[in-house]
Amino acid sequence: MRTSLCALCKENRSVIIRPKDRAKLCKLCFINVFETEIHHTITTNNLFHRGEKIAIGASGGKDSTVLASVLKTLNERYDYGVELILLSIDEGIKGYRDDSLETVKRNAMQYEMPLTILGYEELYGWTMDQVVEQVGKKGNCTYCGVFRRQALDRGAARLGVKHVVTGHNADDVAETVLMNLLRGDLPRLSRTTSIVTSTPSASSDPASNTNIKRSKPLKYAYEKEIVMYAMHKKLDYFSTECIYSPEAFRGSARTLIKKLEQVRPSSILDIVRSGEDMAKLVPGNDEGCGGTCSNSIPVADEEEGGCGSANGRTAGGEMATMEQQLAQNEVASENALEVDLTTPKVNGQRNDRHNSGTVPLPNRRKGKKGGEAFIPKKAPTKQTMGTCERCGYLSSQKICKACVLLEGLNKSRPKNGLEISYDSQPKEESSVNGIINGLEKTAIAGD
Amino acid sequence: MEGDQTINITLGFLGGLDKLVLGDLDENQMAIRLSSRTETGKNVNLKYLFKHIYDNLLVKSERLVPKRDPRYDENDPGKQLPFEEAASVLIENGKIRGGNLVVINEADWECIADDLAEELGVEVVADEMEISDGDKIEFVTTLHGG
C-alpha cells in the first residue's frame, strides 16, 4: 500500500486524514495541530485568565483525559498561568464509575493535579444504583444529568473555584444541536451551543455555587481526533460504557451524526456552526449582537451535553420514530415555519466570512407581521433566573429540577422500604436523614 | 493446493472494544491466521476480515450474549438485546459502524484509502482494500464514555 507524506512537514508518513479539511498529517504534526487548535479556541474566546483556578470535570473517559492532558501541555507551553485541578463526580454506579474513578486517580498522579471526588450519595442521599432501583432503567439518565450538573457546580464552590471546564467535543455539541432542533427547542439550542455558559449569581457571596463559569475548550474538536490523540499519546483512559441504558433520543441523534460523518466528515463542525448561527437568531439571545456585547454569557442549561456515554445502541424502532418525527417537522416547515425566516436582512453568515457583522433579526414578539402562523409551543422568552427555594441553587423555577426529582424519589422511598422488609427500614430512615443532612449541608455551602 | 496459503495478522481492539470482543483478557490484541484467498480465489480484503471477526469472534463474545449484560433483564426476553443488535456496536450489515476507527499499521484506514485513490486515480471503497501478511489492524470505538 502506498502511503503519502504529511501535508505539513512533508517528511513523515501521514497517518491520519482530518475530518474537517481532509488534510493528511503525520503523527507528530497531528498532535501539534490538535493542541494548537485548542490553544486558539482558548485564546480567541478568552476562556482563561492569568491566576485563575480551573477545575476540569474529569470522568476518566477519553474526552476529559485528553482535556486534562492538553490543558496541562498548553498551560506549560504558552504560560497561561492558570491553576488546574481535577473534579470528579461519583454517581454511585458499581462496576462503572468506581472503576473509572481509579483512572481519574491515576490521571491525577500522571498530570500532578489535585483531585476532588464528590458523590451523589453525599450530595443528594441517593446513588445512581439506588435511583435506578427506584425508577427503573428508563429515564434514569435524566436524574443523572440533572444531578451531575449541580454536583459539578457545588464541588467547584466548595473548592473555591469559579470556572469548570468540561470535555464536551464537537460531536457532543452537534448531537445536542440536533436534539434541540428535533424538539423544537430553540432557546435551549442557543444556550447549549455557547462555548461559555455561566450560572450568574443571585447572591454576592463569592462562595456561592450559583456563580460558576463553564466552558468547553474541546468544542471544535472531533471525537475521532480526540480518540486518535489519546491513542498516539498513549493516554490512560477508561472506556467502558455506562451500565445503564443510554438515553434513547440522544442515542438516535448520535447514530445519525456518525452516519453523516461517514458520508461527509465536515458535517459535524457544520452542524455546530449552524447551531451557533441559529442561536444568533433566537430572540432575546445576547449573542445576536455578534458576541461583542458585555454580559453576553448565556445561562447554563441543566441538560447540556448529556452524559456522553450514550453509545448509539438503539432499537430500530426508535430511529423509525425519529424519522417519522423528522417527516412531521418537514411538513410543519412546509406549512408555516419558513415564513418567518425570509426576512431580507437575515445575515446567516458567520462573522469571519462577512466582516460587516450580523444584523440582528427584529424581535419576533414585536415585529411579527405575516408570521402569525408560527407560534412556538414554548414562547422563546429568555429565562429569568432566581434561586431554588429549597437548596439555593440557581433555577428558573421556584424549585430546581434536582429538588423536584429528589422530592419524587424521597416520597416513594419509605413506602418501598416497608414493602421489602422490616429489616431494611432503619437503614431507609437513616438514608432519608442523610438526604436532609446532605441538602442542608449543601445549602449552607451554597449560601 | 496453492489456494491454501495463509497470512498471519494481528488484531487489536481498543477504547472499550477490548472487553467487548476479547472479554476480560488482559491483552487487547490477538494474532489470527487467515486464508490468503477467498473461496472465489481473490486476495482477502477488509470486508472478508470483518465477516471473519463477526462470525468467529463476536459470536463467541460473552459480553455480547445478552443474558450476560447487566443492563438487560434475564427473565424478560423483551429486555434482551438480539445478538445482531449487540454486535452492531462494531459491525452492522457487514460494515464497520460509524464511530469506530480502523487503524492499519498505525495509520487511519480513511487516510490509506485516500492515498490509494490518489495513486490509482479511482474512487476506493475502504472495505475492499486488501490485507497482507504481517498487517496489524486495530479497531477503536469512539462511542464509550466521556
Automatic annotation (TrEMBL), chain A:
It comes from the Eukaryota. One of its GO terms (cellular component) is mitochondrion. Its EC number is 2.7.7.-. Pathway: tRNA modification; 5-methoxycarbonylmethyl-2-thiouridine-tRNA biosynthesis. Belongs to the TtcA family. CTU1/NCS6/ATPBD3 subfamily. It is found in: Cytoplasm. One of its GO terms (molecular function) is tRNA binding. PROSITE patterns: UPF0021. Its main location: cytoplasm. It comes from Lophiotrema nucula. InterPro entries: CTU1-like_ATP-bd, CTU1_C, Ncs6/Tuc1/Ctu1, Rossmann-like_a/b/a_fold, TilS/TtcA_N, UPF0021_CS. Plays a central role in 2-thiolation of mcm(5)S(2)U at tRNA wobble positions of tRNA(Lys), tRNA(Glu) and tRNA(Gln). Directly binds tRNAs and probably acts by catalyzing adenylation of tRNAs, an intermediate required for 2-thiolation. It is unclear whether it acts as a sulfurtransferase that transfers sulfur from thiocarboxylated URM1 onto the uridine of tRNAs at wobble position. Prior mcm(5) tRNA modification by the elongator complex is required for 2-thiolation. May also be involved in protein urmylation. Residues 386-416 form the Cytoplasmic tRNA 2-thiolation protein 1 C-terminal domain. This is Cytoplasmic tRNA 2-thiolation protein 1. It is an enzyme of class 2 (transferase). The keyword Lipid metabolism does not apply. The keyword Metal-binding does not apply. PANTHER family: ATPASES OF THE PP SUPERFAMILY-RELATED, CYTOPLASMIC TRNA 2-THIOLATION PROTEIN 1. Residues 53-241 form the tRNA(Ile)-lysidine/2-thiocytidine synthase N-terminal domain. Residues 345-375 are annotated as: Disordered. GO terms for biological process: protein urmylation; tRNA wobble position uridine thiolation. Keywords: Cytoplasm, RNA-binding, Transferase, tRNA processing, tRNA-binding.
From TrEMBL, chain B:
The keyword tRNA processing applies. Keywords: Cytoplasm, Isopeptide bond, tRNA processing, Ubl conjugation pathway. Its main location: cytoplasm. GO terms for cellular component: cytoplasm. It comes from the Eukaryota. GO terms for biological process: tRNA thio-modification. It is found in: Cytoplasm. Pathway: tRNA modification; 5-methoxycarbonylmethyl-2-thiouridine-tRNA biosynthesis. SUPFAM superfamilies: MoaD/ThiS. Belongs to the URM1 family. This is Ubiquitin-related modifier 1. It comes from Lophiotrema nucula.
